[in-house]
Amino acid sequence: MNKVINYKKISYRVTYLEMATPPSFPWPNQIYKKISVLLTKNIPTWYFLFLYKTVGNDYNWTDWLNKTDKELNDFINDENVFFYTLIKDGWTAGFFILDYRDSKVCDLSYLGLVPDAIGIGLGKFLLKTAILMAWDKTNINRLTVNTCNLDHKSALPLYQKFGFSPIKFDQFKKYIS
Fold first, then answer.
1. Shortest CA distance to 105 belongs to which of 23, 14, 19, 26?
2. Which label site among 33, 92, 119, 131 has the fewest CB atoms less than 10 Å from its CB?
3. What is the DSSP letter of 116?
4. CB atoms closer than 10 angstroms to residue 87
5. 110-146 confidence digits (pLDDT tens)
6. C-alpha distances in angstroms, 104 versus 20, 101, 139?
7. Inter-residue contact 111 to 130 (CB < 8 Å)
8. How many other C-beta atoms lie within 10 A of the C-beta of residue 81?
9. Running DSSP on this structure, what letter comes out for residue 95?
10. Is the per-residue pLDDT at 1 higher than 80?
11. What backbone torsions phi and psi does residue 100 show, to the nearest 5 degrees?
């Protein structure tokens, strides 16, 4: 028997944001005793996909799900792409990726928390850390990020609160199951 999959067409709006100068806020206080942000190297594709799916499942993150292992590996292990893992009490609570492949620009490609880490203050901590690490890493003149109305409802207001300004909007449609 063939399984029938019902797809639903959804529309969503992507907001592209940028920050043209380093922020003036300080490094965030460590809100938990056993928390760290680690630069992750030689990342296996399964690890990236595990976090990507776990973080993005409720927000329809799908862009990397149809890529080949080579495409995934080429991105996450590029010498100009930096993958950071948030560890809380010994378990992976989230991640972010800083992409410096475009000269003088850092793109905050991904940032997110696993479901068990949402609502306990880690989102602000992780975003502040990502922003400051992006500006601290090299001589960039712009930090970019994008989000959409399918992401967590706090994403866009939080980006704006920490200094990002919208520069462009796009409307898209996709099918989800």
1. 19
2. 33
3. G
4. 14
5. 999 999 999 988 999 999 999 999 999 768 999 999 9
6. 11, 9, 7
7. yes
8. 17
9. E
10. no
11. -105, 20
What is the strand order of the sheet 81-88 is part of?
Answer: 35-40, 81-88, 91-99, 105-113, 142-148, 8-19, 165-176
The Cα 37–Cα 96 span in angstroms is 10
Q: pTM above the 0.85 mark?
A: yes
Q: How far apart are CA 135 and CA 133, in angstroms?
A: 6
Would the pLDDT of 32 be above 80? no
Query: For residue 118, what are the contacts with CB-CB under 8 A and spacing of at least 6?
Result: 152
Model pLDDT for residues 67-108, shown as the tens digit of each residue: 999 999 999 999 999 999 999 999 999 999 999 999 899 999
